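A quick aside before the break. I want you to see a complete sequence-to-structure record at least once, exactly as it would be stored in a machine-readable document. Don't worry about memorizing anything.
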Amino acid sequence: MFFCAVLVFSCKKKTIQDPIPFQNVNVTIYPNDPLNFKIQVVGGWMYYNGAGVNGLIIYRKTNVGANDFIALDRTSTYLPDNASAKVKVQLDNFTLKDTISGSKWQIIDGSVLLGPATLPLKQYYTNYDSGTGALTIRN
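That is the input. The structure line, written in tokens, reads:
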């Protein structure tokens, strides 16, 4: 009996602590607004300041439904305390790079392409309502 209890408690799933500080995000934008022209087409992206820790990168993955967009925090998961390690979209419009550490992520889901970072970028929940044209981003 004791062995079973030890086995159950020793098999706990280890959780990775998010290195990015919690920042309440609750934003609504309208992709069809002329100011947001960059995300009106699939593959388009834009920086959005004033949300997340260091701002957001909003990327349009598809144009078929509620999950058309992805929103990633621009804070590097390798250097989260260094404000200069802000993630930037590269010329290929696919790769995101922290110019301090050289870490790279892919824009479609924030997963790591090249270290030293080992954690994906922080992703926020998105919902696009095609009826109202509103994109809601929140955590």
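Two observations worth writing down. The radius of gyration is 18 Å. Helices lie at 2-10. We'll return to this after the break.
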